[in-house]
Amino acid sequence: MPDAGTSRTLGELRAAGYRVLPVREEMRKNLLARLGRAERILPGIIGFDDTVIPEIENAVLAGHHMVFLGERGQAKSRVIRGLTSLLDPLVPVIAACPISDNPFAPICRECKRRLAAEGEALAIAWIGPDERYGEKLATPDVSMADLVGEIDPIKVAEGRYLADEETIHYGLIPRTNRGIFAINELPDLTEKVQVGLFNLMEEKDVQIKGYKIRLPLDVVIVASANPEDYTSRGRIITPLKDRFDVQIRTHYPRTIEDEIAIMEQEMPVFDREAAAVRIPDFMKEIVAHLTFEARGSNEINQSSGVSVRVTINNYESLLSNAEKRSVRLGEREIVPRLTDLHSVLASTAGKIELEYVGEDKRENDLIDRLINRAVLKVWDKYLKVEGLKKVTEHFEAGWGVEVSDRMRGHPPDPRAPRGRGAARPLREPGPHGRGHRVRARGPPSPPEAQQGPRRRTVHVPRLV
Ligand SMILES: [Zn+2]
Questions:
Q1: Ligand 1 centroid to 444 CA: how many Å?
Q2: Ligand 1 centroid from CA 18, angstroms
Q3: How many angstroms does the Cα of residue 179 sit away from the middle of ligand 1?
Q4: What is the pLDDT of residue 399?
Q5: Ligand 1 center to residue 190 CA distance, Å?
Q6: What is the Cα–Cα distance from 208 to 196, expressed in whole angstroms?
Q7: CA distance 105 to 107
Q8: 11 CA to centre of ligand 1 in angstroms
Q9: Where do you find CATH 3.40.50.300 in the chain?
Q10: Residue 79: strand pairing partners
Q11: How do residues 158-192 score in pLDDT, each as one tens digit?
């Protein structure tokens, strides 16, 4: 684009041969350029390469209005925000215009007047993609005033005619003129606001307090919704639904590898002191499998879904529990282990919706079962029962192993306080039963350590 960012007046812009494109054409142009260079669109979006992204590309090339349908935590907002990467790095607007008017063809009355008065000397400003993006989470409280604008009584008092655009205090969508506006959870808008939105998209005019005001905005409106809400009768007015040319269905990661890649990408990096963080792959896999198990559970409401955020937060909880241990025991490494898994209860509960409402205990029981299933899945991947004969014989003979999330992972550091030993086999017979028990017998602990889930008895399914 000639002259991007340098012209300061309309005259300079015109002399440089700059041409303002409608947003859709601008996105199309930039997408075609990317495709020509074999570059990815939406970097950082994992697992949609063969499903969602090709559909977005087609929709952008066709200039279609898109609605993204998906359960919670499927990166819908992130995908929509990522569309701003298809905008030019800088575009010219009329300086100080609240709706980022096109310098060659302003739509607001004040800019029209300024253009007439100042001509080629009209001041230009340049804005980037971030300033051209707006979003709103739809709720029944969202009004036309929020989205489109309202009559400003002060301006009316100044003697301006009511149907004059200069009496409007612009709302979110006009302020995103020449950009992309996202409405998340579209079905939660009231019918009245949906009608207003439709008029804005279709007729380019709006009704504010009974006055029809023409507002030929250039905005790409993208929406998202939960599929069940979107398709259920009466939640979306038919003309608005028809206005969205394509429905793009998002989904959860299809593979454990994608789930892990997302969780590693999204986890905030804390400065974890000097300790080295080492997370065994099997622990990452257990966290990812736990979410997969939850998504497959008929005890959980799958129409609201199990967000990728469950995985991310569980991973953080696990790491924090391991970090506490390393600090308490003065270890130089932070290494999560199976006995840290109880820490995911708190970060899973509340993010899943049980099918049948019951007492809290049921939720924790369910999560416990999901954890056990996830552990078993990963166990089966890495270990074969046949190769463990010696180990199982050991347990059958009544031996046990002490485990705890408070025990040292390595032989004790001679500088560490006494009484905090490493995991060691017990020299006494354990109980026999339907399964084998690995007994959690920690060393004597200071009084403050007695609170919380310190000792865990891990139930190991019978292997032979
Ligand atoms: Zn203007």
A1: 73
A2: 19
A3: 15
A4: 87
A5: 29
A6: 9
A7: 7
A8: 17
A9: 4-249
A10: none
A11: 766 655 666 778 899 999 999 999 999 999 999 99
For residue 306, the CA-to-ligand 1 centroid distance in Å is: 44
The total number of residues shown for the chain amounts to 464
Residues of the chain with CATH 1.10.8: 256-382
Quote the ligand 1 centre to 94 CA distance (angstroms): 7
What topology does CATH give the domain 4-249?
A: Rossmann fold (3.40.50)
Query: 366-378: string of b/e by CB count within 10 Å (b at 16+)?
Result: bbeebbbbbbebb
Distance 176 CA to ligand 1 centre (A): 12
Question: Tens digit of pLDDT for each residue in 328-348?
Answer: 998 888 999 999 999 999 999
CA distances from 372 to 242, 314, 420 (A): 46, 15, 28
Q: 254-302: per-residue pLDDT in tens?
A: 999 999 999 999 887 776 665 788 999 999 999 999 999 999 999 999 9
118 CA from centroid of ligand 1 (Å): 14
Q: 256-382, which class in CATH? A: mainly alpha
Contacts of 137 (CB under 8 A, 6+ apart): 184, 185
**Token digits for 81?**
């925000």
